[in-house]
Specification:
Length: about 325
Amino acid sequence: MGFVKNLLYKISTENLLFIFRKQPLFPYYHIVSDKAVHHIDNLYDFKNKKQFEEDLDFLLHTYKPLDPEALWNNGCTENSFLLTFDDGLSEIYTNIYPILKSKGIKAIFFINPDFVDNKEILYKHEISIVINHLKKSNVTNEQKEKLGRMLFNTTENYNTTSAIKAVKNITYQEREMVRKVSKILKINIEEYLAKNKPYVSSENIKEMLNDGFFFGSHTMSHPPLQQLTIEEQKKQIIDAIEWMKNQFHIKQPSFAFPFTDRGISKSVIQHILDYDQNLLIFGNSGMKKDVNNRIIQRFSLEKPSKKIGKVICTEHLYKYYNKIIGSYTIKRKYEHP
């Protein structure tokens, strides 16, 4: 949260929610777990199962669950909510799916085809694993020398804090460097994937689809799209949508931007909307109006330190703040490839 949102959170109260209940809510999460998750621990905080169930009980008490089917048919009803989950982590099947099912709540799960069946690992997840290893302080002098040369072009500036910072700053384009760091530290990522299975399997997805849950795409490999060319962005998005259709016969396609939808051009948006007239797009810019009504903006309920009622109230107040300052409608530039 920025300064304004933090201020609004302090003055927010769930007692104000009755004023805002007409607008449907689209909250998102990534993971719910009672245990430490090495490939997530150094990226963001997440809620445990008890906290997640408390969120759901609050939502069910205050709003009505929206069946995703309604998005493609009759539209959203007032005083409703629809949950979405990004990245296709295995906990959506082991932890989240059973809880949602027990409470009669349907949801949409956005996945990256490259990671389904644990064939590969998202580079940010590998970074988290590396950081965990660095924090253990069992890095040998030989490894420190190699890391120093790779990360700082010198063997003299190595220390744990600087190494962690350097690894965190490795970009998507430099992601091969993460694997090189893993090899220096003798971290076997293939073994980690086989043992921990961080992502859902095709069989998991089929079971959940058969149970009435929805799945959408999240690009092929979860890159920060703004760092790619226009054509690369289109390919990452379209290839993932096509894969979902071919693999699971998805007839109601949806797509969610990885990381953020900020800075995505109008030309990319229009291209993917024209590609499939039935496609719905999900962003994560909060309660805002986008350039097309087939784009649904979401907000996060993931932080365990934030109370759900206050977060929802904050999002509503922030919406009115954005209206006052002229930032409620998202402005997207048209860019040629």
